Amino acid sequence: MPALNFKAQFAEEVEEGRKRQTIRLRRKKPIRVGDRLFLFAGMRTKQCRRLRAGTEAYCQSTEPIEIRNGRVMVNGRGLTLFEIWRLAKADGFETPEAFFSFFRNQYGLPVEGDVIRW
Q1: Residue closest to 30 by CA, chosen among 97, 102, 115, 90
Q2: Total Cβ atoms within 10 A of residue 30
Q3: What is the rounded CA–CA span in Å between residue 9 and residue 1?
Q4: What is the CATH number of domain 3-117?
Q5: Does the global pTM surpass 0.90?
Q6: Helix 96-106, helix 81-90: angle, nearest 10
Q7: CA-to-CA distance for 79 and 85, rounded, in angstroms?
Q8: Shortest CA distance to 96 belongs to which of 108, 84, 113?
Q9: How far is CA 6 from the centre of its chain?
Q10: Cα→Cα distances 92→19, 29, 32, 99, Å
Q11: What is the pLDDT of residues 22-41, one digit of tens each?
């Protein structure tokens, strides 16, 4: 039963059900379709709280993703600009520029990981 921690900037959207996916670096033990997910904000702090408590979250799909400067590949296929916009919005970003900036600053590009949807 994997636990996913969200930064404060995403917590409200996860809590309200507007954000139903996350992009994570590859894990030693990958999240699989059907896994029950525990969603948190502020893990390992006194402010830790469970998001969507009382609402079960189960992994609906996972897909490998690669994020490079201005380019995104999901399942080995390059996304169009429109698809990048949709992915960025679904992941809680207002624009693709904000999406790329976040991953560049957080992890450095390129990023290889998984898109996890619930």
Answers
A1: 115
A2: 14
A3: 24
A4: 2.30.130
A5: yes
A6: 70
A7: 10
A8: 84
A9: 9
A10: 6, 25, 22, 8
A11: 999 999 999 999 999 999 99
